[in-house]
Amino acid sequence: MKNIILTTLNSRFSHSSLGLRYLYANLRELKPQAEILEFVINSSVQTIAEQILDKKPKIIGIAVYIWNAFDVGELVKIIKKVSPETIIVVGGPEVSFTPRRVNFDVVDYIISGEGEDSFYTLCKEILDGTCTQPKVIFSPKVDFEKIALPYDDYTDFDIKNRHIYVENARGCPFECEFCLSSIETKMRYLDVDIFLNEIDKLWNRGARNFKFIDRTFNIKISYAKAILDYFLAKQEDYFLHFEVIPDNFPEELRGLIKQFKPGCLQLEVGIQTLNLDVAKEIHRNLKIDKIKDNLKFLSQETHAHMHIDLIIGLPSEDIESFGRNLNQLYTLSTGEIQVGILKKLSGTTLDRHDKVYGMVYNDSPPYDILKNDLISFSLMQDMKRFARFWDIIYNSGNFQKTTALLFEDGKVFENFYALSKWLYKRSESTYKISLDRMAEFLYEFMSSKHEKELIANTILEDVMKVGGRNIPPFLKKIIPQNNDFTQKDVSKANKRQQLRSE
């Protein structure tokens, strides 16, 4: 039995909640009465409720995010029906701002903002029977250097099986209107020596998989250098993920990044658009020349694996502009290009564009755009399928040589758009398409414009890059069986990154 259960639904089993561990670490004398329980979205909500209530908690604290808001809404309804006396407290970005588009009327308290101090105070008052808090608690920003750090509260199981999320800064200096991070433009940093001491303790316990949630890791070069130096001194293999801004890679940082071995470093690079007029409309500052130079450097002179973000549906940007962005990025980088659909998150200032550009959004998570004055609903649906097929064909790395052939005329967007339209008509689905089936679809589509033997051999070479794969049955009928293909043994954990880096 525990008086306090801290819980959330992560998007994957391999993920862990840093926010829950911050709350847990700052419960002070109440910490022995608390326990963290983590679940995964799309699990049975009733089973989750059962496992939580088995602990007979007096208080349940739930972290709510865009990916789990609907499931959490269902979870709290069930808990309140089964155990109405149990106090439910929700917090996190999805409930910190209005409008709250998922109904949380049945919860007892909503903590809006950073909850490390507020959650402790609320729990103490509830357990003492002295609580006079309002239902919505507007929590001020904490003193980042004075709150308890959560890293000792990662369990040995977490370290062995999950990504370890860490942060050495909060806030973002930029004002991009689609992003919640733009709400706090003043940066708050932990002392870098204190932070690295926590990392060192995790490392000594066996942690080798670190995801930094700092929005702009390379904004303060001295901090970035200290952290990179720490890991470069290690001899064992590890994996680091950073979110970086694309225009701030001075020579001192470049020299360090060039030293990382393949498979160690992943960079999420926020581009969103290369159209300066569109960027200005959403308060995003772009330095195009620096971005081009840095992407070229990262692609040609480092082993860093890149995720480069582009967004469909930004105010004032039509599909032709998005297509030019994609065509250009393809020439600048060999990394993954993450094609995202614009979402309107509560708390951002995107709504100021709604009337001007006819922006219409889904009222349910993930609050994605449905149409605007430049992109019809039908075309937006096409682009959502485009994004899905782009991920499973191009970003996966499974068809690297095949897509290079598809894009050989430089018309990346135009050719892939035609492919995605054809694929959806042919398959009537964007999910549960096997590798062999997709290979056959690509052969069927491309053989109308390319020499069939060339297409078949290119697809076969792509498919057989990973050791242990079998030749797709349809190719056995086309290609002589005496062909010799070298099969490379690719680590399963980093297969996607290694495929794209070759």
TrEMBL record:
Keyword set includes Metal-binding: yes
Pfam families: B12-binding (PF02310), DUF4080 (PF13311), Radical_SAM (PF04055)
Keywords: Iron, Iron-sulfur, Metal-binding, S-adenosyl-L-methionine
Cofactor section: [4Fe-4S] cluster
Entry-linked PANTHER family: ANAEROBIC MAGNESIUM-PROTOPORPHYRIN IX MONOMETHYL ESTER CYCLASE-RELATED, SLR0320 PROTEIN
Ranges where the B12-binding domain occurs: 2-133
Name under which the protein is recorded: B12-binding domain-containing radical SAM protein
Radical SAM core domain ranges (all copies): 158-380
SMART domains: Elp3 (SM00729)
Cellular component terms per the entry's GO annotation: cytosol
Alphabetized InterPro entries for the sequence: BchE-like, Cobalamin-bd, Cobalamin-bd_sf, DUF4080, Elp3/MiaA/NifB-like_rSAM, Methyltransferase_Class_B, rSAM, rSAM_horseshoe
GO molecular function: 4 iron, 4 sulfur cluster binding; catalytic activity; cobalamin binding; metal ion binding
PROSITE patterns the UniProt entry points to: B12_BINDING, RADICAL_SAM
